[in-house]
Amino acid sequence: MEVFVSIDGVLRNTIQKFDYHYKDYFLNTETDEVEKFEYGVSGTPISIENLLNTYKFQSVDEFNKFLYFDFPIEIYGHAGLSYNQAATELNSLIFENKDVKITLVGLSEKGKAKPATLFFLSKNGIMADKVIFSSPENIKKLWKKCDVWITDDINVVAQCPRFKRVIKFNTFYNNNFTNKLQINKLSEIEKTWLKFSVKTIISMLMESVKSVKQVMKLRTKTEPKH
Q1: What's the sign of the alpha-carbon dihedral 185, 181, 91, 153?
Q2: pLDDT (tens digit, 0 to 9) for every residue of the chain, 226 residues total?
């Protein structure tokens, strides 16, 4: 049984730190760069996937430099937890479900953001055995490696395969969509939600097909010959 847990949103409030450092550096500091360009924050609904739609940058390169090279430890490393007990409740989930393999997934980390994320996890004493870094472009491939995914990301929810399960973690920025399974805290996860595996479903389907074949075979043997 493999369960993925998204780091951003579920465990870490990355957006709050990004917002603080963007405003502090670009809006509250007088520099030559700021004088040449009108930085600001639009009213576009915010999420970690579309920061460029909300926060004005001169270019994608400037955005990447700010996020992944200038302020990664401040944004990714020193960000707060998504809620006060997030780390404790994740550790409890891991400890109480020893038959479940829990993997933490980072989808937005590039450059120095990766070691900064490891610092965040270490600082908060998070006990997951495995951490992987990927990108939103690989969500479909990542789904092939897990049975359940706990996430705040609409793209992960939208790409959930038919025989797998996604649990939406509610945040202030993702109330524009809903999901059958939703939580506000990790402690709200029901154990039955984690007793779910695509391998189990396939096995059950195979057994069902096998039973049908056996019944048909038995009927063929018992039918009178004319």
Answers
A1: negative
A2: 899 999 999 999 999 999 999 999 999 877 655 567 899 998 767 877 789 989 999 999 999 999 999 999 999 999 999 999 999 999 999 999 999 999 999 999 999 999 999 999 999 999 998 999 999 999 999 999 999 999 999 999 999 998 899 999 999 889 889 999 999 999 999 988 887 654 554 444 455 555 545 545 655 555 555 5
Prediction pTM value: 0.83
Contact 142, 5 (CB under 8 A): no
DSSP of 69-94: IISHIIIIISPEESSTTHHHHHHHHH
Three-state SS annotation for 172-193: CCCCCCCCCCEECCHHHCCHHH
The answer to whether residues 114 and 133 touch, using CB atoms and an 8 Å cutoff, is: yes
Strand 130-133 and strand 101-106: pairing? parallel
Residue 74 in contact with residue 17, Cβ under 8 Å? yes
Decide if 85 contacts 185 (C-beta within 8 A): yes
- Measured in degrees and rounded to the nearest 5, phi and psi for residue 109 equal -80, 130
Burial bucket for residue 224 (CB in 10 Å: 0-12, 13-18, 19+): exposed
Domains of the chain, each with CATH number or no CATH: 1-195 (3.40.50)
